[in-house]
Amino acid sequence: MPVRYLGLAAVLAASVSVVTCASAQEAERKGIAAPPGHVFKTIISGYEFRSKETRALQDDDLENPGFLAVERAADAWKKAEGSAGKSCMSCHGEAETSMKGVGAAMPKWDDKLKKPVNLEQRINICRTENMKAEPWKFKSQELTDMTTFVRYQSHGMKVSVKTDGPMSPWFERGKQIYYTRYGQLDLACESCHERNNGKFMRADFLSQGQTNGFPTYRLRDQRLVPLHERFEGCMFDVRAEPFKPLSDEFIALELYVAWRGIGLPVETPSVRN
């Protein structure tokens, strides 16, 4: 039977036969020591699961195609839009200073909304409330570019999301979603990225599923992909009905998965397969 007709569960089972090969590469993967209570002893970025050619592409700022978004958004940062006649720069000044560390700490609690918001939502809150401009649509080039640009200001800084206080029930909700089996294939996020990371599946290695590189330039799609689109893709892959991007469910999942990569450096814009 052709591989494309095999269910994901069957492919996972088949991957056992190549564990030896995967283990050899795993031995070369670098990570950081996980804090107490973490599910892994070593937290490893998705970068380490890619080929040396893909890693080299990410590491070269001139060759990394994700930097086209950074450059476009750097111009958009200074452009006034909306009836208030303001730009991002009108309120925040130079992004290199004011946005440093912002992307490393998202999702973050919003006192006004009484819920956590992620970077895409924060950008659109600024547009509607301060600039009096229309919000950008999820997956639009404008929103993905600006999300990439703001997160890039935290490049190299450690992921540092807060999960205590009012964030605690959202963290627990995200954890519940992570371990819940969905779809016709009856698989959870945990099935691939916890129990089977490092194994070879469909010409690629399953990573630990960290978020420190998002938005990430996917070679398969030839464009930057925001995190919630990747969540959608995973749920489609297990033949489930995905939650909506920017929904409370995906915000909770984003918080939990970000915590699983706590301490990893922000790599945005990363390059993945």
UniProtKB/TrEMBL annotation:
Pfam families, sorted: SoxA-TsdA_cyt-c
Record flagged with keyword Lipid metabolism: no
Residues that coordinate or bind heme c 1: C88, C91, H92, C126
Source organism (scientific name): Bradyrhizobium quebecense
Signal peptide (UniProt feature, chain positions): 1-24
Subunit architecture: Heterodimer of SoxA and SoxX.
Catalytic activity: L-cysteinyl-[SoxY protein] + thiosulfate + 2 Fe(III)-[cytochrome c] = S-sulfosulfanyl-L-cysteinyl-[SoxY protein] + 2 Fe(II)-[cytochrome c] + 2 H(+); S-sulfanyl-L-cysteinyl-[SoxY protein] + thiosulfate + 2 Fe(III)-[cytochrome c] = S-(2-sulfodisulfanyl)-L-cysteinyl-[SoxY protein] + 2 Fe(II)-[cytochrome c] + 2 H(+)
Protein name: SoxAX cytochrome complex subunit A
NCBIfam families assigned: thiosulf_SoxA
UniProt-listed Enzyme Commission number(s): 2.8.5.2
GO molecular function, one term: oxidoreductase activity, acting on a sulfur group of donors, cytochrome as acceptor
Keyword vocabulary terms for this entry: Electron transport, Heme, Iron, Metal-binding, Periplasm, Signal, Transferase, Transport
Gene Ontology terms: cellular component: cytochrome complex; periplasmic space
GO BP terms: sulfur oxidation
Domain Cytochrome c: 73-159
Active site: residue positions: C234
InterPro entries tied to this protein: Cyt_c-like_dom (IPR009056), Cyt_c-like_dom_sf (IPR036909), SoxA (IPR025710)
Residues that hold heme c 2 according to the record: C189, C192, H193, C234
Keyword NAD: no
Cellular localization per UniProt: Periplasm
Co-factor binding comment: Binds 2 heme groups per subunit.
Binding site for substrate: R230
Cofactor(s), names only, from the UniProt record: heme
UniProt similarity note: Belongs to the SoxA family.
Top-level taxonomy: Bacteria, Pseudomonadati, Pseudomonadota, Alphaproteobacteria, Hyphomicrobiales
